[in-house]
Amino acid sequence: MKWIRIGVQVGILILLNELGKMISHWLHLPIPGSIIGFFLLFFCLKRKWISISWVEAGASFLLGEMLLFFIPPVVGIIQFKEVILSSGIHLLLVIVIGTVVIMVATAWLVEKVYRLRREETTE
Amino acid sequence: MKVWISLIMTIMIYLLFKNIYRKWKVIVLIPVFICPLFFIFLLIIMDFPYEQYHQGTKWLTYLLQPATVAFAVPMYKHWHLLKKNMVEILSGVLFGVTFSVFVTMFFSLLFGFSSFITHSLVPRSITTPIAVTITEKIGGNASLTAAFVILTGITGLMLGQFLIRLLRLKTPLAKGMMFGVGAHGIGTSKAFEIGEIEGTFSSLAMILAAIFGVFFIPLLAPLVEKFFALWI
């Protein structure tokens, strides 16, 4: 029963995705259909046209198992053997250093803005 | 026939490592890292063409699209948290995404990567389904980007806790945003380990970074590239 519900709800999300793709295609939008589907679902939830109970189980399934859907595209780097062999270490360096820098800067900024706003409101 | 085998194998190996990782929590056994590695070795050893593996598993990859739609559910559920902290969240996301384009371009030029690789690196802090869309728009490759996104996420997952201590972060908002902006969904899984609120902020940051990135990175990337070309 649980799996039937998840299946049906995933079906609803697939329909919204396909609807988004059609809209993107018809209107020649430079936005992927899945993003339009995202806004469609958000809008419908806000207006209560879709009840959250119709999609919640399917959404948590898709988001919870998202790592499974990543596997095939990652395996695709097999097509870029030369790139990995020639500059793999440099790529890894850029990714690790870059990620640390971005995380530190973002956390620092958010904490700064947070404190500034609290000081404002307490004064 | 072979087509079905690659699909079923992918699901089974994923479930196997998911359970192993849940039990032992050893970082190199995280499914998103070990499973692709397993299949890369398997394809090489068996001399199995990637094209056939791709044919068998493409509908699994397709599910990344409805998964993007599904992000609307947590966004709707936590809308009040988002509204309450709108200024911090938006400034963190706008700054983080912009800054990450600069940082990646800078290092890529420093190491002399080709523009093809640079463009595949640029969207790597964004969650995979959207990062792949962005990379196709700016002239990178989806598979390379997917691999870079995963490595970025694992970096964030491994170093996040250390950075929190180093920076003496106090607010759940800053802790969560750091993971969501810097290390997307994989970082978010770590943020949820730290706390429910941290995880929620992390997922909100990740969703907003994706939405903002899909509109903004294709416009920003060529500008930043020109900017650095003037200097280097």
Automatic annotation (TrEMBL), chain A:
Keyword set includes Ribosomal protein: no
Subcellular localization: Cell membrane
Membrane topology annotation: Multi-pass membrane protein
One of the Pfam families matching this protein, by short name: LrgA
Keyword flag Acetylation: no
Principal location: membrane
Transmembrane annotation, as ranges: 26-45, 57-78, 84-110
Entry superkingdom: Bacteria
Record-linked InterPro entries: LrgA/CidA
Keywords recorded for this protein, A-Z: Cell membrane, Membrane, Transmembrane, Transmembrane helix
GO cellular component term, pick one: plasma membrane
Protein's UniProt name: Holin-like protein
From TrEMBL, chain B:
Residue ranges of the TM segments: 26-47, 59-77, 89-113, 146-167, 204-224
Keyword Nucleotide-binding listed: no
Topological category with respect to the lipid bilayer: Multi-pass membrane protein
InterPro entries membership: CidB/LrgB (IPR007300)
Keyword field: Membrane, Transmembrane, Transmembrane helix
Chief location: membrane
Localisation per UniProt entry: Membrane
Keyword Calcium set for record: no
A Gene Ontology term for the protein's cellular component: membrane
Listed name of the protein: TIGR00659 family protein
Organism of derivation: Thermoflavimicrobium dichotomicum
